[in-house]
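Q: Given only this backbone (324 positions), what sequence would you predict?
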């Protein structure tokens, strides 16, 4: 089974590039930029990566991202993740990045997007891994701030496919970002959003009806509402489920209790993803392997999950054909 999973061509649809920042690379870049980080060793970093909720994690995640300064830093971060994709038979990936995490520290939008997109271009040529970018607005900041980010992105519109919504979910409902999503759609960006990770089903409804999203990031709490499940199926939307993230952030107590199998049985369109692999103990293949084991998923269910990852990607129909 492990070999079957490792060899299966797959796409990753829910990945934060800042969450792929492995401790080794973080130390290297921190040293290069003369920035002190509050850890002496990889072991100390691993000790710090014990979270009791999303906010616990986010505090450490933003701190880690604080060592990224130059275009080369963003290039190295991204290329390192794409090398892991190649090693796992991930043929295509849709990478989220959080511009505000960096622009709020005085790093320009241009530095971030140029470093990330150059790594994507090189990986397509050298590693045969294709990718596209999802610019995510931070929901703990204001809608006005998201509008500024949208404005900054416009000179680089050709490099960005979609917009997302991430960071602290509770207390920051999708409705807060209705206008900026409307404006983003007008600019040609495809809308997605984190919803129903810690927030309730009504946040998922808002993301569907107000933000007009084309894919749901996480979506676990959709299961609270039978009408919502029906609606998600009717609209043929997929959920980008992240099992090891859910256990690390205590969204789910134990992988054996993960709702993924139930989601499949209900007829929801599910994909498996790593979210922030450097922080949650596993790349995408590890997410497949541990979930398969915990829920006793069959080979045909694993195959369906991998197939869904291409089917619900934002690749052109022509490119999807290669994999479906
Ligand atoms: N940013 C990075 N990972 C996230 C997650 N799992 N939920 C919300 N925001 C995030
Ligand atoms: Zn996420």
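A: Predicted residues:
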């Amino acid at each position: 089974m492990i070999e079957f999973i490792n060899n299966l061509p797959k796409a990753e649809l829910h990945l934060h590039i800042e969450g792929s920042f492995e401790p080794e690379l973080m130390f290297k870049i921190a040293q290069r930029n003369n920035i002190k980080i509050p850890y002496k060793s990889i072991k100390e970093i691993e000790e710090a990566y014990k979270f009791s909720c999303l906010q616990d994690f986010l505090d450490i995640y933003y701190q880690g991202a604080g060592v990224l300064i130059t275009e080369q830093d963003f290039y190295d971060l991204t290329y390192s993740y794409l090398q892991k994709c190649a090693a796992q038979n991930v043929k295509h990936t849709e990478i989220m990045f959080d511009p505000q995490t960096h622009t709020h520290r005085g790093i320009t939008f241009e530095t971030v997007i140029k470093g990330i997109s150059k790594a994507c271009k090189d990986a397509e040529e050298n590693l045969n891994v294709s990718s596209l970018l999802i610019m995510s607005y931070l929901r703990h900041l204001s809608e006005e701030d998201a509008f500024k980010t949208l404005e900054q992105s416009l000179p680089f519109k050709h490099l960005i496919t979609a917009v997302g919504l991430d960071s602290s979910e509770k207390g920051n409902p999708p409705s807060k970002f209705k206008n900026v999503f409307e404006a983003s759609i007008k600019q040609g960006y495809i809308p997605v959003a984190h919803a129903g990770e810690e927030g309730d089903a009504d946040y998922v409804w808002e993301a569907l009806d107000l933000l007009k999203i084309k894919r749901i990031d996480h979506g676990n709490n959709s299961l609270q509402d039978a009408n919502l499940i029906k609606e998600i199926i009717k609209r043929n939307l997929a959920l980008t489920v992240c099992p090891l993230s859910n256990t690390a952030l205590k969204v789910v107590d134990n992988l054996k209790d993960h709702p993924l199998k139930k989601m499949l049985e209900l007829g929801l369109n599910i994909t498996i993803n790593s979210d922030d692999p450097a922080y949650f103990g596993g790349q995408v293949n590890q997410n497949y392997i541990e979930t398969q084991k915990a829920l006793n998923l069959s080979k045909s269910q694993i195959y369906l999950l991998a197939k869904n990852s291409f089917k619900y990607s934002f690749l052109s129909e022509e490119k999807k054909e290669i994999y479906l």
